[in-house]
Amino acid sequence: MTDKAGVTAVPPAPRSAAGAGPGTAEPRLHGDALTLGYDKRTIATDLTVAIPDRSFTVIVGPNACGKSTLLRALARMIKPSRGHVLLDGRDISALPAKQVARTLGLLPQSSIAPDGITVADLVARGRYPHQKLLRQWSPDDERVVAASMEATGVAELADRAVDELSGGQRQRVWIAMALAQETPLLLLDEPTTFLDIAYQIEVLDLCARLHREEDRTLVAVLHDLNQATRYATHLIAMRDGRIVAEGAPAEVVTAELVEEVFHVPCRIIDDPETGTPLVIPAAPGTPLGVR
Length: 291
Hints:
Layout (H helix, E strand, L loop, with lengths): L28 E10 L2 E11 L4 E5 L6 H8 L7 E6 L2 E2 L5 H5 L2 E4 L11 H6 L14 H13 L15 H14 L4 E5 L7 H18 L2 E5 L3 H7 L2 E6 L2 E6 L1 H4 L2 H8 L3 E5 L6 E5 L10
Parallel strand pairs: 3-8, 3-9, 6-7, 7-8
Antiparallel strand pairs: 1-2, 1-4, 4-5, 9-10, 11-12
Organism: Yinghuangia soli
Keywords: ATP-binding, Cell membrane, Ion transport, Iron, Iron transport, Membrane, Nucleotide-binding, Transport
Subcellular location: Cell membrane
């Protein structure tokens, strides 16, 4: 269903039945009628969202629209004041921490490594959810850590201190640690922040490869709309704590949507490299509604 601006309307996601998971009609991860905020400040009310399984979902929107708040709620970093986040049909807040950590990995917006820790030691911390009282480090853990470093291109940095690395290298190390958790879902909060364009592309290419080759469900918050349309298989556009549109980028990214969400007049053309929507801002001084 579309509205008069040509934007795909967002239907409410139904509650998941207990035990829902891969191969069922319900997605593994979704939020139902969420009210989110910090202390007494409400960011979003009655927010319902479903993350398609095996998608590379990207959440976009202007600053302070609630996109990182939504991601943190999906990752159980903050608890909704109303509503529920459901993981495999169960309220995520009621699940044991290690069970969540074996299902859902998180790369937070700001990650700080302990002083002097090596790349191999940091990546190995991703195996913590799999440790038990009678099962400590194993050959399988060693294999997973090595494979995670290889997949992210940091194997040759294994003995280097993390704080000696460049920004792009550090970000790949943190992603390697998240991969070492071996979770089918991976959430990334602004993974390209503070990186120059070369490292941004490096990190997003890595995420796209992980999604494509390992069939993982990825959810990322990004600021750059053109990067979002290039890499996402599913796009969620937010403004003022609500979801304005969601769907495949080619279906939902229109000049009307960009004006509504970002207040930027623009044209949409096909990216000559990928064929995905490319947002071209209008000349300075162009009023809204004039393209």
